[in-house]
Amino acid sequence: MKALITGITGQDGSYLAELLLQKSCDVYGMIRRASTENFERIHHLRDQIHLVQADLLDQLSIVRIIDEIHPDEVYNLAAQSFVPTSWNQPVLTGEFTAIGVTKMLEAIRQIDTNIKFYQASSSEMFGKVKEIPQNENTPFYPRSPYGVAKVYGHYITVNYRESYDIFAVSGILFNHESPRRGLEFVTRKITNGAARIKLGLQDKLFLGNLAAKRDWGYAKDYVTAMWLMLQQNEPQDYVVASGETHSVEEFAQLAFRVVGLNYKDYVEVDPKLIRPAEVEHLVGDPSFAKNELDWKPSVSFPELVKIMVEADLKFIASDAHIESR
Ligand code: NAP
Ligand code: GDD
């Protein structure tokens, strides 16, 4: 079994690569050329995976690698994935996150329609939510150029499934986090900030909207759902979520509690971090994935916060040690 992962250098790509290796897959990762390597998350896997250069912006490069590798499964995780950047770079976000999906599907259509395809859809598509909780039938109302691009990616995947009989599925994943989460996302910003404050490296943590609510899960659990979706008899789209929602403020409260501090003494709101249009309340209904895929999350919200804070304490302590030498 051969699998190609786009976005292998990202949070999800690195966990998915680990999972597929455990399943005895031959793992190929698509990377884009950079002047310096950006492989921290997959460093430990380097001698077990194959890295191939291509870019979501370059159709021919995608056709070439899919033709050369001829994978059984393609997981399309690559995207411009940070919501605030999508207001500053809306066109580029559309090129990567929307049209990039068509480029992947078109390559599969031309080379071999038996290749299975996973698209990383997002709860951001629900945006200004039409119902609570959100499930596979909830209408979309995206609130950012990123969300709009993901809606395009979602429907083009449905369309290639229906037009060309490709086994193409979308996982509508709610927020999932880990110690490998990028530092700009709110969970990692908080756990990293709490750890730095505890270690005396920082005084304050500036955040935006503390009232926003998210359905947060653990990334390792969520990549298992991606794999399960491609092992089914029928291609279908699934919501993957914990079914619980918590505010950014609650996340901060718990994270500071892990290091024995009161978040109110350190967290301040910076109005510059408030978004032009906000997604206020996300909470998913994962019943379909639970029933059909036999999938359920294994890490609770407080456990997730603790895992991330403890990892950051360790990471920063070793870093601070290097700084002080
Ligand atoms: P991430 O950590 O930001 O990783 C994004 C990956 O995409 C990186 O490997 C990046 O490569 C790659 N990439 C970006 N532009 C590219 C291009 N033009 N060509 C090739 N590769 C490119 O994202 P993540 O959190 O792992 O999320 C994975 C996917 O799931 C994304 O599509 C995201 O939108 C979606 N999603 C995430 C969540 C979540 O909560 N994490 C929830 C729902 C959906 P570089 O290392 O070179 O930048
Ligand atoms: N990033 C960030 N930084 N967000 C903040 C901050 C801050 O300082 N303060 C408050 N927030 C709020 C945001 O306004 C948002 O409501 C919430 O925290 C979560 O923000 P992010 O962690 O940046 O994630 P996101 O929900 O916008 O997007 C993530 O999840 C999506 C799935 O719903 C990304 O991973 C997307 O790629 C993914 O599709």
Walkthrough of the structure:
With 325 residues, the chain is an alpha/beta fold. The chain has ten helices and 13 strands. It has a seven-stranded parallel sheet with strand order 3-2-1-4-5-6-11, sandwiched between helices. Helix 1 (11-22) crosses helix 7 (219-230) and helix 6 packs across helix 10. The radius of gyration is 20 Å and the shape is globular.
Radius of gyration: 20 Å
CATH topology of the largest domain: Rossmann fold
Number of strands: 13
Low-confidence stretches: none
Q: What string, H for helix and E for strand, traces the elements in order? A: EHEEHEHHEHEEHEEEHEEHEHH
Largest sheet: 7 strands, parallel
* Structural class by secondary-structure content: alpha/beta
CATH architecture field of the largest domain: 3-Layer(aba) Sandwich
Instruction: State the distance separating the first and last CA atoms.
Output: 47 Å
Bound molecules: NADP nicotinamide-adenine-dinucleotide phosphate, guanosine-5'-diphosphate-alpha-D-mannose
- What spatial order of strands do you see in the largest sheet? 3-2-1-4-5-6-11
Number of DSSP helical runs: 10
Q: What's the pLDDT, averaged over the residues?
A: 97
CATH class of the largest domain: Alpha Beta
Compute the number of structural domains: 2
Full CATH superfamily name of the largest domain: NAD(P)-binding Rossmann-like Domain
Task: Specify the helix fraction band.
Answer: 40-55%
Shape field: globular
Beta content comes to 15-25%
